[in-house]
Fold:
Amino acid sequence: MIEDHSLSAQGRTLNKGTALAGVNHANVHLPPPVIHATGVIAGFVLYEYSAFKVPASLLLNGLGVILVLISMIIAGSAFRQFARSDNPVPPNQPINELMSSGPFRYTRNPLYLALALLHGGIGLVTGNAWILLTLPPVLLIVRYYVIAREEAYLARRFGQNYLDYQARVRRWF
Structure:
């Protein structure tokens, strides 16, 4: 006898550990910019209670500026690719086509990479170590709440084409 390990949710199938299989989007309702902003704001709040500083350094400050600038370049390129592909940016909307050109040639998640670089850059520029310490948990949330659902959706939506793309292009860089 074969066991069915799926649950029913309003007529749609939910496989354990995945997003709703019957939904035509990634089922992500907490956008990654909100996740990162929460981490950055938490860092500022913690700093008010305990000033945990990055050592003052022109080199670290310059690195922070470079990270912010690189994040803007990557994000701008990714937004242009979304527009060219006529795909929505929010992960809770269906996409029209698999994007594999522009920044998507190098990373499957250029916007999330840009957010991570921006997050780290803000921590370095402000000298706030709390912001840097919020980055790893934020990245874990993005990886396991957002990216896992998106990857499952894209595999359902585009099948072998997405699996081939996934094998060819790394998740982050």
